[in-house]
Amino acid sequence: MGTLLTDLRYGLRMLARNPGFTAVAVLTLALGIGANTAIFTLIDAVMLRSLPVRDPDRLVVMRWTAHQTPNRNETSGFGDCPNVSGTGKEYDCAFPYPFFELIRSAKEVFSAATAFAGPAELVLSGNGAPRMADGELVSGDYFSTLGVNALAGRALGPDDDSLSAAPAAVLSYAFWQSAFAGDRSVLGRTIRLNGVPFTIVGVTEPGFTSLTPGHSQDFFLTLSMLPRLNIDWGNDSRSVNNWWLVIAARLKAGTPLQRAQAVASGLFRDEMLHGEKPLSKPSDEPAIVLTPAQSGLSGERGFFSKPLYVLMSTVAFILLIACTNVAGLLLSRATARQKEMAVRLALGAGRGRIIRQLLTESLTVSLLGGALGVLLALWGVHALTTLMALSAESPFPFVIEPDWRVLAFTIAISLLTGILFGLAPAWRGARLDLTPALKEAAGLLPGAETHGGRRAPLGKVLVVVQVGLSMIVLIGAGLLVRTLRNLHNVNPGFDTRNVLLFGINPTLEKYSDSQIQSLYRTLQEQLGALPGVISVSYSSGALLSGGLWTSDVHVQGRPEKTTEEVDMLGAGPDFLKTMRIPLLAGRAFSAVDFEQAAHASQPGKAPQQPASPTDAAAPAEKSKTAAGPAIPVLVNAAFARHYFGHQNPLDKTITKGSSDSATNSFGERPKTPHWEIVGVVGDTKNSTLRREIQPMVYVPLTGGGAYFEIRTASTPSGFVTAVRDIAKSVDSNLPLFSVRTQSETIEGLLTQERLIARLAAFFGLLALLLSCIGLYGLLSYEVARRTREIGIRMALGAERRDVLRQVAAQGGRVTIIGLAAGLVGGLLLARLLSSMLYGIRPSDPATLVVVSVVLAVCAVLACYVPARRATKVDPMVALRYE
Length: 882
Known about the structure:
Elements: H1 2-17, H2 19-48, E1 59-66, E2 74-75, E3 90-92, H3 97-105, E4 110-125, E5 131-138, H4 142-146, E6 150-153, E7 168-171, H5 173-180, E8 190-193, E9 196-204, E10 219-222, H6 226-229, E11 242-243, E12 246-251, H7 257-274, E13 287-292, H8 293-296, H9 301-336, H10 338-346, H11 351-388, H12 404-430, H13 434-437, H14 452-488, E14 499-504, H15 513-528, E15 533-539, E16 550-555, E17 564-571, H16 575-579, E18 583-586, H17 591-601, E19 631-636, H18 637-644, E20 653-656, E21 674-681, E22 696-700, E23 706-712, H19 720-730, E24 737-741, H20 742-749, H21 751-785, H22 787-795, H23 800-832, H24 845-871, H25 875-878
Parallel strand pairs: 2-11, 5-10, 7-9, 17-22, 19-21
Antiparallel strand pairs: 1-3, 1-12, 1-13, 4-5, 4-8, 4-12, 6-9, 7-10, 8-9, 14-23, 14-24, 15-23, 16-17, 16-20, 18-21, 19-22, 20-21
Helix pairs in contact: 1-11, 2-9, 2-11, 2-12, 9-12, 9-14, 9-21, 11-12, 14-21, 14-23, 14-24, 15-19, 21-23, 21-24, 23-24
């Protein structure tokens, strides 16, 4: 330890004597370490942090598996569980309420069980103007099962989860701060959710937002409150045919996972095959898979994981470039210190002692760089989260709190970096040949070097590595930037300019279908009367908003008992005109069509796509409408091509679910609506820009929530205030949500691509800068080392252009080798990025050529200054010591 402290003090003195070298080395490492720490902090928050519950290792999540999906009527999913593909079986984590009660009774393997669903978008009133807020429905034992306590007041309990209980709500900490300013007097206050009064009884702990990662709720309600809230997916919430709950259970102490899984599978199989209404067949082999909650609940991890891992790989390259850069600086510095090292060796110091001293100096530099990198990382995390949420309606959904993992990562990467860039220079510094190193001439000239022929190749190798790594990063950045540009240039099939969107959901205020139609007509008329408004319409979902409604249909002319999945969209009057979607054949919807559709929907509620983005994940309910007169519908050109080829699709019929003669696996003949094709419209992108255009059916929208589309003659954002005023005058209890332009909505879809492209471009430029600095440093070092040689050449008659060409050629050779190595690595990286690309091949020649030219031009500029300096060497000065 005494030796270590001595080495540390001496190293600090040496660094202080060379402030220029120290500043460049520390700043270079700070950039690399800071970037890595920032990205790792986000990865830790998104992917690695354990669930904020008691004993998370004993908490499991249930998923069912079967060869065929059970014959359920309704299912709702909220992005809680990761997708499972390639297994040949059906998987899901949505369960009916009766099965949750069975799991509760399995006391021999589970000490507790809870269920939850949502978020549900509800109208919140009683705290200022009405607004939309997210609520999660949970069982009464939710908080006790998870081991989560209330910061203020109390948590929900079993007594709150009964149909006769007084409605109670628990606020999340973040919502308590944002909506109620952290006022503790909020406890006991009454708020209204969808018109139902709820008493605020507590506030959750700050670190708990939801059991599902990334799902941030505003408040928590009990499952028994669902029927009162008039939510679409809450119909028959206690029925075995409505699958909407995620079930989590806590393993009993000492119970193996396999035993608990066997018990749960037995209960599930018995319910599916021998329940009051069997939903599966024995050949389906229904079973339960228990997964640790940490990995079994994905939430928003899937959205953020891919860009974070890509960025982590990128900043790892940046750190390697920084390490090679500093290693090159240390090699150059070792030249000036070779006389010092030779004297130490001559006085009896061992080579290991010299290596330890030099490594101590390297580690000191890396730790200083790590300390500065932490400050850069704090800024970087804030900048990254801001970028991620820039186009989103909500902030970054994960809690960013640096913990011991981030601290350990920073320390480890700082130590590893110090060893990585310091080992080779230290090893070379200790392997001096004492006889020439101690000669007076060796130290007379700055930059003089023994064994120059052995040391110069290492510096060149380091620069080749920097150029190659920069090439890899730039190729990846180029492909991602071009992907973003390609997505921006996609033709969506409709005019996205000057369109203002907003969502509204009258069903939350218990509007009937006839009242909804009247409301929409009133809004359409008043909005259309605004000066500068060209046209107004509405639809069940906004195009290119990320939501998707699909349905299984049987098309006339296809084999009976067969169905195919198609996209669906409910459209209001003048929808084609407002969105400027071309009508290719037939006619558009008329007023009679909407009346006919409304009349047909009266016996049983027709399915509608949810209006809110949150509810868009919940598939529509199977229709209960009895067969009657065919409802007029429109189809897109892709539908006509796929199902009818060159035939005329007009007047052909479509049946939702199956044909009239089809029966399900239990011999039941379902009652389904019939649709008649009256028009063919142009193809449009539906949910996302990346998704290929699919066959699509437009049905007359007669109820449910909707998005309004307002086409304006000028900038649509200037109409927001007037639109809100009109909506408030029609019904002040109906808040608008997702008030954005169509262009802003599309930009929101590209949040991930834009984030990756921007950061990849930034890190690519940083890598380019570091590699140019490295190349500049190498040639400056070579010019200084060869000053005497250059002076002799010029004294013997060499022209300045010959010296310039010779020095530049040395940098050019290094650059070409680095470009070739980087090209190979870049092609391998591009293949790994292929799933993230759009409209471009991984081996895109234009990208490879542009990146190579940019890097070559920058290398030429980096070579020019040292080469020009070499031409200005005065032979008399260079030869003075001879």
